Every structure is written in structure tokens, then in C-alpha cells.
Automatic annotation (TrEMBL), chain A:
The keyword Transferase is annotated on this UniProt entry: no
Entries under PROSITE patterns matching the protein: ABC_TM1 (PS50928)
Keywords recorded for this protein, A-Z: Cell membrane, Membrane, Transmembrane, Transmembrane helix, Transport
Keyword Transit peptide among record annotations: no
Bilayer disposition of the protein: Multi-pass membrane protein
Name of the protein in question: Sugar ABC transporter permease
Family designation: Belongs to the binding-protein-dependent transport system permease family.
CDD domains assigned to the protein according to its UniProt record, in alphabetical order: TM_PBP2
Organism: Dankookia rubra
Transmembrane parts of this sequence: 34-59, 88-112, 124-147, 175-198, 233-252, 285-303
PANTHER family found in the cross-reference section: BLR7065 PROTEIN, SPERMIDINE_PUTRESCINE TRANSPORT SYSTEM PERMEASE PROTEIN
Entry's localization field: Cell membrane
TrEMBL record, chain B:
GO cellular component, one term: ATP-binding cassette (ABC) transporter complex, substrate-binding subunit-containing
tRNA-binding among keywords: no
GO terms of biological process kind: carbohydrate transport
Homology family: Belongs to the ABC transporter superfamily.
Name by which UniProt lists this protein: sn-glycerol-3-phosphate ABC transporter ATP-binding protein UgpC
InterPro entries according to UniProt: AAA+_ATPase (IPR003593), ABC_transporter-like_ATP-bd (IPR003439), ABC_transporter-like_CS (IPR017871), ABC_transpr_MalK-like (IPR015855), ABC_transpr_MalK/UgpC-like (IPR047641), Mo/tungstate-bd_C_term_dom (IPR008995), NA-bd_OB-fold (IPR012340), OB_MalK-like (IPR040582)
Gene3D superfamilies linked to this entry: 2.40.50.100, Nucleic acid-binding proteins, P-loop containing nucleotide triphosphate hydrolases
Signal peptide extent: none
Lineage, top ranks: Bacteria, Pseudomonadati, Pseudomonadota, Alphaproteobacteria, Acetobacterales
Domain ABC transporter: 4-235
A UniProt-annotated Pfam family: OB_MalK
Length: 314, 367
């Protein structure tokens, strides 16, 4: 259809004759313009709080220690050469992946238990189980630190009372790494639980009934109906948690402060260590930037799966 | 393939609601039985007890001879089609249909053969790779049926499978279901609140009301010989007219006195049946299709005539419906569309008294 002089705009009124391109009036009336204007405050906030710091961090990471000259990728090269930093990469990955897997499994189990208790009792349990997630992590970690403390560890007291060994929770590298994961799992599981519970509630009962009639046992129902129906929520929750856990700072900082011998450091705590405590801000920035490509790759693949399933399913 | 026996079955939900109050029903092998009744009468509950989705509070249900009260749905060898289809959204049409067979560990080849065969019957071969989201309502309905057919179960259960479809598609799928049943001949229990569906599909119709069975019988029998006022009013569309009347005996003949000006003679062959009730206040039941225009050459015995003034005239195409009010009761008559009728004009009408029913208002039973 050819555009003639009296094209009708989206508002239904005849537009001004389209001479010499778009008039300002017409531009202001377009829907996309209005949408952009309405989203502008949010765009400004994101630019100010996300884009600018990120850009600035990239800029910082290319400077030398005194921040006086540009050294390109120098900081990154030095980091990759350093034994300690390679260990931090490993530890971050092990920490994040183990913690997320444990949180996902435990969260799923808890969500399932909750889903099957009647609505009345459910609210109380839900509230109690959410507590670890609601308490400020620095505080609760401090509590854990006490329980792990070598001289008056309540956990060890319990263990020895039951005839078990006394465990050097934070002193021995293996146990220290485990402790960090335990606390993170404790604090993060409720998030998974609540997300999964919502997902479970969104699966129509009739699908389970159809599956039961089709011959599925409880397990088969879980495997062939529940899990596939929850895949998107699982993906998004895992991704979200992976990002947060990877960038976890407070638990490591409070519990072990990276020790023993820097063996429990993750990216964020190490970045703080290098950048603030040792005063090499550009290198600290470089440390924290290492997370970005790793997470971006994971996010890309997971979100692609989510999008695809969204298109195919309801 | 199997019979289904329902013996004194009771369903009581928590809180004391009795949804089903001790019903008995024997369903034969290959039979197509339709449970019909108004909303909330316990049809779905009955069906779900047969399926095993709802526990049985009392009595017993047997499928193929064996009592199934304590057998879980997966071991009852039944297939069910749900009102909203309940297709697995994450599986393709093929997988939706194959799922039950896969769980039962059928060989791959056999699964393929059965799914393709069912797809052939239902004409959904081209849809096998799609996900349910990409199907229309009617296509989803077919897939849901396919899922039941491939299993070749002892019994098919349908819970209002057509109520989410538009009127035209509903008629089409109704025929389809009938065709499928004639092909596979599996014993079928079908729930609907639509009496037209019930009449067209059923070998036998079970009319339920308030958790009890009012009457069981072939469609024609229910139409011609309803046993209760409820069945009389429920089966047939538009519904049967009920007019309060008095049965009077005058010198050996029985008459219905509808009002001082309308007196209708009872056909001779019915006199013996009604004689004992002479002098009582009863309900006169007559279907709209048996109240017609006066046809000049029709001299069958038992035709009575009277005059009434229709207030609303509804031309339906194949027929014209006339509505008039008599002592506060709405009465409907069905005229040939060729007869010109005007609202507000006094019109002669013929009543086929051979098709009349008399109902005892105390017991609501048809006399
Ligand atoms: N889970 C339940 N708990 C308590 N009462 C219920 C439950 N399910 C159904 N009922 C009650 O049982 C009665 C019968 O319900 P049912 O679903 O069998 O009706 P229906 O005949 O299928 O009606 P419809 O045509 O509306 O589907 C209703 O009064 C309903 O309120
Ligand atoms: Mg129902």
C-alpha cells in the first residue's frame, strides 16, 4: 500500500502531510517515543549504577598500580601468571558449583516436602525455613563463625558428646572450604525452596492425574512431568544463584577472611584483598572482571534454553 | 475391554459433603454409557472414582470382574480424556501419545505402530511433531483422544471432553467420538451436562441428580418414558412443559382441567392407568414438540385442541417456538415454520394427548 498525503497514524487522526520527513509533533506522538521517555528514568538508573561502574572498572583494570599510566592487559597477564590467582579461579568455581548444586537439590527436596503438607501448616513452615535467607548474611555468618570457633565450637562439642572427632573447621584447608560452602548453602537454600515451591504450585494437578492414569509412579511423575515443567524456573534460579554465589563476598570475608593460606578466597574476596587491603586498585578491578566472561557464557546458554522452551511451551 | 460394576458407591468429601449417595450401575462390555445431569450432581466424582483419582468412601467398583477400590489408577488399565485435555506441554504430540506405552515398556516399534494408527484414525498425522501449544482446541482434543486410544485400555473415561470447544466443532467431535467408539468398541463412560450429547452418543444414558441416579435407559426410552419429573424435564430441548391440573372423572371418561376454559380429554388407553388418581391435583407434562399448529387433515385419536395467545414467537428456522403464559407458568409450543403466527394474536393449537405425562407433585414420579 502506498503512503499518500493523508496517512492515518496509530491514534486514528490524519497525520500532517508527510513533507520533508518526520515533524517533531509526529515524532512525539509515536508510541516508541513515548515508551522510551517513560523508561528513561530506569535507563538513567541502570546507566548510573551498572554501566558506569562497569565501564570504570574496565578502565581501571588497564592502569598501573599508581594509576598513572596505561598498561593494557598487563594486570590480567600478571594475574594469570600468579599461582595464587589460578587457585582463586579454581576455588571460586568449586565453591560456586558445589554450593549451587547442593542448594538446588536441598531446595528441591524442601519445596517438595512443603508442597505436600496442607496449606494451613505450610505457612508456618515456609516462614521458618525462609529465615536463614532473611537474616543479614554478615550477622548469620558471625553466628556460624562462633559455632566453628576452635576453642568453643558448639559443633565440636556436639560431635565429641556423641563420641565423634573434633574437627578443625576453619583451620584445615579442606574443612575451611567445606565450612564456607556449608554456610553458603544454609543461607541460600531457602531462595531455591521458595522459587521451586512457586513452580510446583504452577503445575496443574490434572497433569499428575493424566500421568497417574498413563501409568506413572510417583518417581516417574517427578521425572517426566514435574522436572520438565520446572526446567525454566530451575534454569533461571540456578543462573541467578550462580551469579550471586560466584560473586559472594561476605561469607568468605567473615568466616575465613580467605585463609588458611589464601586457600578459601573467591573472586570477590580476593579482589577486595588485592585492591583495597593491598592498595592495588587496578589489579583488584582486573580480578573482579575475570568473573564477567565466565558468567556471561553460562548465562548465554542457560537463557537460550529458557527462551526456546518458552517459545515451544505455554 | 471389560464390564464396569458400580455397587452402592458412596463418596463423601471432607467436611461431610456427600457428592455421590450410594449408586448402582452395571456397564456392559463395549457399551457406551453417558452420565448426564446438572452441575454439581456428582458425575465427575463418579467418573474419578472409576479412574481411581478419588477415593471411594463406600461400596465397591469392579472393572473386568476385579474389585479396584484399592488399586491405583496406573494399574486399573483405564484411559481418561479430561475437559481441558491435560496434555503434557513439554512433549510433542507423538510423545504425549506414546508416554503411557513408554512407561509400560512397550517395544519402540510397537509404540510407533500404535501411535501412527491412532493418528490415522484421528487424522492428526501431520501434527505428530508439534507441541500442544501449537495446536487448536479441536486438535488438542484429538490428541487427548489419541492418548487414550493407543493404550487400548479396558475402559475409556471422558469428562466433558467437548465443553471447551465452540458449537460447530463440538458437533463435529461428537460424531468423531462416536466413530472412534464404533471402530475400537472399548467400554466407555462419558460425562456431560449436555443432554444432546448424551442422547446422540449413548447406548444407555444415566441421569444423575444430587448424587443419586434418577433413571438409566436407552436415549429413546428416557425421552418417551421418563420415570421422574426431573428426567422428564431434563431430557429434551426445549424442556417439557409442566402445567398444574386437576384430574376429573365424568361419566367414565377422564379429563384434565387446566383451567375453567381448557379441559383436555385423556386418551382411552390411558384411562385404566390414571383412574385411581381421579380427583387429585397433578402436574400435566407435555413436550413442546407435541403442542403444534392445528393440521386440518389430522384426525388421529387423542388429539385435543385449545386456543392461546403467544407472547413471544421465536423462529428457529426448522421450527418456530411459541411462548405463552398460563397462570404464571411459561408454556412452549413448537410450530411448523410454514405457519404464520403473530405474537399477541389468539392462535389455535393441537395437543397430542398420546404423548402426555402425568406427574404426582408429592413424589415427583411420573404416573
Ligand atoms: N474436593 C472436593 N471437596 C469437597 N466437595 C467437593 C469436592 N469436589 C467436588 N465436591 C462437591 O461434590 C459435588 C459433586 O461434584 P462433581 O464435580 O462430581 O459435579 P459434576 O456433576 O461433575 O458437576 P459439573 O457438571 O459442574 O462438572 C459438588 O457439590 C461439589 O461441590
Ligand atoms: Mg464435572
Amino acid at each position: 500500500m502506498a503512503l499518500d498525503a493523508t496517512t492515518i497514524t496509530e491514534t486514528g487522526r490524519p497525520a500532517a502531510p508527510a513533507t520533508g520527513g518526520m515533524t517533531l509533533q509526529r515524532f512525539a506522538r509515536r508510541r516508541s517515543t513515548i515508551a522510551f521517555l517513560m523508561a528513561l528514568p530506569l535507563i538513567a538508573v541502570i546507566a548510573g549504577l551498572v554501566a558506569w561502574p562497569a565501564g570504570y572498572a574496565i578502565y581501571l583494570s588497564t592502569l598501573n598500580r599508581r594509576m598513572t599510566s596505561f598498561i593494557g592487559l598487563g594486570n590480567f597477564e600478571i594475574l594469570l601468571d600468579s599461582e595464587t590467582f589460578r587457585m582463586v579461579i579454581w576455588q571460586s568455581c568449586i565453591f560456586a558449583i558445589t554450593a549451587v548444586v547442593l542448594k538446588a537439590l536441598l531446595g528441591f527436596w524442601l519445596a517438595h516436602m512443603l508442597h505436600h503438607i496442607p496449606t494451613k501448616g505450610q505457612r508456618v513452615w515456609r516462614g521458618m525455613l525462609l529465615l536463614p535467607w532473611v537474616v543479614p548474611p554478615a550477622l548469620s555468618t558471625l553466628g556460624w563463625w562462633w559455632m566453628f570457633d576452635p576453642s568453643y565450637s558448639s559443633l565440636n562439642w556436639l560431635l565429641t558428646a556423641m563420641g565423634g572427632p573434633s574437627i578443625p573447621w576453619l583451620g584445615e584447608p579442606g574443612w575451611a572450604r567445606a565450612s564456607v560452602i556449608i554456610v553458603n548453602v544454609w543461607a541460600g537454600t531457602p531462595f531455591f525452596m521458595i522459587m521451586y515451591l512457586a513452580a510446583l504450585k504452577s503445575v496443574p494437578d490434572q497433569l499428575y492425574e493424566a500421568a497417574a492414569i498413563d501409568g506413572a509412579t510417583g518417581w516417574q511423575g517427578l521425572r517426566f512431568v514435574t522436572l520438565p515443567m520446572m526446567r525454566n524456573i530451575i534454569s533461571i534460579t540456578v543462573l541467578f544463584s550462580l551469579i550471586v554465589t560466584f560473586a559472594n563476598y561476605d561469607i568468605v570475608r567473615v568466616l575465613t577472611n580467605g585463609g588458611p593460606r589464601d586457600l578459601t578466597h573467591v573472586f570477590a574476596s580476593y579482589a577486595f584483598q588485592v585492591g583495597v587491603l593491598s592498595g592495588n586498585i587496578p589489579r583488584g578491578a582486573a580480578v573482579s572482571l575475570f568473573m564477567f566472561p565466565l558468567l556471561a557464557t553460562v548465562a548465554f546458554f542457560m537463557l537460550r534454553g529458557v527462551n526456546q522452551r518458552n517459545r515451544e511451551m505455554a | 475391554m471389560a464390564q464396569v460394576s458400580i455397587r452402592k458407591v458412596v463418596k463423601e468429601y471432607e467436611g461431610g459433603v456427600q457428592a455421590v449417595k450410594g449408586i448402582n450401575l452395571e456397564i456392559d462390555d463395549h457399551e457406551f454409557v453417558v452420565l448426564v445431569g446438572p452441575s454439581g450432581c456428582g458425575k465427575s466424582t463418579t467418573l474419578r472414582m472409576i479412574a481411581g483419582l478419588e477415593e471411594i468412601s463406600g461400596g465397591e467398583i469392579a472393572i473386568g470382574g476385579g474389585v479396584v477400590n484399592d488399586i491405583p489408577p496406573r494399574d486399573r488399565d483405564i484411559a481418561m480424556v479430561f475437559q481441558n485435555y491435560a496434555l503434557y506441554p513439554h512433549m510433542s504430540v507423538y510423545d504425549n501419545m506414546a508416554f503411557g506405552l513408554m512407561l509400560r515398556k512397550f517395544p519402540k516399534e510397537e509404540i510407533r505402530r500404535r501411535v501412527e494408527n491412532a493418528a490415522q484414525i484421528l487424522d492428526i498425522k501431520v501434527l505428530l511433531d508439534r507441541k500442544p501449544k501449537a495446536l487448536s482446541g479441536g486438535q488438542r482434543q484429538r490428541v487427548a483422544m489419541g492418548r487414550a486410544i493407543v493404550r487400548d485400555p479396558k475402559v475409556f473415561l471422558f469428562d466433558e471432553p467437548l465443553s471447551n470447544l465452540d458449537a460447530k466443532l463440538r458437533v463435529q467431535m461428537r460424531t468423531e467420538i462416536k466413530k472412534v467408539h464404533q471402530t475400537v468398541k472399548t467400554t466407555t463412560v462419558y460425562v456431560t451436562h449436555d443432554q444432546v450429547e448424551a442422547m446422540t452418543l449413548a447406548d444407555r444414558v444415566v441421569v444423575m441428580n444430587h448424587g443419586v441416579i434418577e433413571q438409566v435407559g436407552p436415549p429413546q426410552e428416557l425421552y418417551h418414558h421418563p420415570q421422574t419429573k426431573f428426567v422428564a424435564g431434563f431430557i429434551g430441548s426445549p424442556a417439557m412443559n409442566f402445567i398444574p391440573t386437576r384430574l376429573v372423572e365424568t361419566s367414565g371418561a377422564l379429563n384434565l382441567e387446566l383451567s375453567s376454559d381448557i379441559v383436555l380429554p385423556i386418551p382411552e388407553d390411558r384411562i385404566g392407568r390414571y383412574k385411581a388418581h381421579a380427583g387429585r391435583e397433578l402436574l400435566f407434562g407435555i413436550r413442546p414438540e407435541h403442542m403444534t399448529e392445528v393440521r386440518p387433515n389430522d384426525h388421529r385419536p387423542g388429539l385435543a385442541s385449545f386456543h392461546a395467545t403467544p407472547e413471544v414467537v421465536e423462529p428457529m428456522g426448522a421450527e418456530t417456538l411459541l411462548h405463552f403464559w398460563k397462570d404464571g407458568h411459561e408454556i412452549c409450543a413448537k410450530f411448523d415454520p410454514g405457519v404464520a403466527v403473530e405474537p399477541g394474536v389468539r392462535t389455535p393449537m393441537a395437543i397430542d394427548m398420546n404423548r402426555m405425562h402425568l406427574i404426582d407433585p408429592k413424589t415427583d414420579r411420573v404416573l
